[in-house]
Amino acid sequence: MVKVGATKERKIRVSQNQSTSFLWEGENVFSTPSMISEMEETCRILLKEQFIPQEQWDSVGTFVEIKHLAATPVGAEVLLKAKVYSVNGRRVMFDVDALDKIEKIGEGRHERMVIEIARFRSRFDEKKKRLEI
Question: Best exposed site among 50, 78, 111, 132 by fewest CB in 10 Å?
Answer without folding.
Answer: 132
